[in-house]
Amino acid sequence: MPAPPRLDVDRLIDDPSIGIVVCCGSGGVGKTTTAAALALRAAEAGRKVVVLTIDPARRLAQSLGLTQLDNTPRPVHAIDTSKGGSLDAMMLDMKRTFDEVVIAHSEPEKAEQILANPFYQAVSSSFAGTQEYMAMEKLGQLKASAENWDLIVVDTPPSRSALDFLDAPNRLGSFLDGRFIRLLTAPAKASGRAGLKVFGMGVQLVSSTMTKILGGQMLSDVQTFVNALDTMFGGFRERADETYRLLSEDGTAFLVVAAPERDALREASFFVDRLEADGMPLAGLVVNRITRVAASGLTPARAQAVAESLEDGAGPRSATNAAGVLRLHASLVRTAERQRELADGFSLGHPGIPVVHVPALGRDVHDLEGLREVGDALSGS
């Protein structure tokens, strides 16, 4: 099969028209490290970069030399700024972001009421989908601060949830327009309307039933929360829709990151199909941690045969050690061949998708030098 087009990472991050790079992929494939390496390389090439991680792991902070990451972008020091670039890093705090939205888009008295509401406190910390909603909100906020950064690199959550933020506007709309929410808000909206008297009696019956199930105080907290957010959520939905449109524009580039393993590449195929179906601008695939063998001309079969010959000769210990090295070489070559076949299988199913192979470093990346090495590998240098 013809070789897939090569993903030119340097050309991507040097392009001033690219303002957002989104790294997505399954867990354990080096996605966080890839995002950090891209951000560092872009900053040292002269871009003003902020990298946002939504992954709860702390690896990004450690590799950037920061003691911690939080909801506020923090400057990364010890980078090469000779070309005028800069690098900030942050980790999404979904509750704090939710609080910021409430404070920014509500009257002070209403904001205080919402923040003190027990149901809000539960929703803002653990409600399914809140992380994705707040990721959209935070990305929109960062993009609005264009005077601070000209490139945003987003490290998404692992597994298929990495694309859940694409569904955030629709899921939020479904939540707000859902039958349960309409029932909760109906008593307040129907109050004083004679024409809705019959409907109101039905709602009272439902409310009575829910009171028995949830408890009166909890139901009251939920109703207060929903009514207080009734107007604010409309604005949030509009902003989420705007961020979704931003992600689909040419100024955004999605990078799918995968390991050279069957399951990871299957997930990568899912990501690519979903992005293409949604019309999202896909830049290409990063196949991370590819095994490279220096003496590639020595086949596994030949290495195995020589190892067996050395062992049969029952020579000195040096011969036994050499046989062990040959067997290790044979195993590495087989691994590299299997990984290459898997990567080729992906390209066969997705012809035309640019690909870059990043070799395994053989050690954990925990500092800026390691990130620079990953960046060099991403660029092919």
UniProtKB/TrEMBL annotation:
GO MF assignments: ATP binding; ATP hydrolysis activity
Record-annotated ArsA/GET3 Anion-transporting ATPase-like domain positions: 20-290
Domain of life, source organism: Bacteria
Name of this protein: ATPase
Record organism: Intrasporangium oryzae NRRL B-24470
Species lineage: Bacteria, Bacillati, Actinomycetota, Actinomycetes, Micrococcales
